[in-house]
Request: fold
Amino acid sequence: MSLEVYERDMTRCSRCSYCKFVPHVKWKNYETAAVCPSISRYHFHSWSAGGKMITGLALLRGRIEYSDTLMDIVYQCCMDGACDVSCKNQRDLEPLEMMLSLRAKMVEDGQLHPAHMFAIDGLKKEDNMLQQKKADRGRWAEGLDVKDLTKEKADVLFHAGCRLSFDEALWDISRGAIKILKKAGVDVGIMGKDEACCGGRAYEMGYQGELTKYAEHNLDVWKNAGVKTVVTSCAECYQAFKVLYDKIGKKPTVKILHITEFIEQLIEEGKLKLDNEVPMTVTYHDPCHLGRLAEPWIHWEGEEKKVMGQMIVHDPPKTYRRGANGVYDAPRNVLKSIPGLKLVEMDRIREYAWCCGAGGGVIDAYPDFAQWTAAERLKEAENTGADAIVTACSWCERNFLDTVKENGNSIQVLDIIQLVQKAMV
Reply:
């Protein structure tokens, strides 16, 4: 939607600062539980969601012009949605949607971040966000006995995603996912070099047309392949397929599952046995795109709603509201199914989890900020006494691994798939 659609939300922002913190909570390790990496890193109101509300309104009404500072304010943001969750406890505004529209306006007006231009150029040329050759996309699966869905049929499509397709250090995760599914007797296949990006990261950078392009492409591919279920181990792909495609009117007709949801289902059905002990203490990091950004969207057509004790007609007249069905329990249930494994929780979890720092194009444009954010999360994980921080998102894993290497943290970084493999008979 255009930025104008959110003008009333921008004017209704009361500068309450709920977008900066976890509401009503004070924990032993935090005087106030910060939830927004941007404001926590840059310490100026403009970098918060409320500050971007003011900025967007000023730009919309011609009070400010584009500048390098404005570029930083808009793009030094992980787009993790924590501010949106906190805001809805107090004002029930749409800061995340406003910020997406603000980025789209920046792109439309030719205010392009150079690092994002480089990534988008690679996407347009090679259909991936890592500037790698499209022809190499299926190399991660070499040697695996898995169906090629461009040549044969299967009920389930495993979509690896850009990061797991090209980041060789993480190939054991995508390969492990296939081994787990085949062990459980799943009729699974892959698209190999014909797999394409989901379009989600480009959308968050402000290139909204790319989401439509790849939604249409992927829906056509899935239809032609005749698959019934699409499974991915990439949290960003999951969010794009299940949430963003629906948002733009391209809702898939196939079932969309994250690998943790599918593994949980296979365990419950007795198709996957986890009998080997894994004697470790781990803490789980909720990926933003699997938790709070993976909640389903529903249309809301300008109905009256009580806000702060007053009846109002919500503006904009047509928007999307998130429910409360993010993927929080499935990963934890899988971890609890592993013999010998002890799960301990960090303070900020589920809808108030601290972001890893890799989202919203930050890892591309501001890698120092991305690693600062990851370091904060790793410190929180180490405070639990865990041997490893475990997550279910390849982008989180890449940023954590880079930060551990840079800072010398002792804590391990693992994917749930790696632990499930250890526990399989």
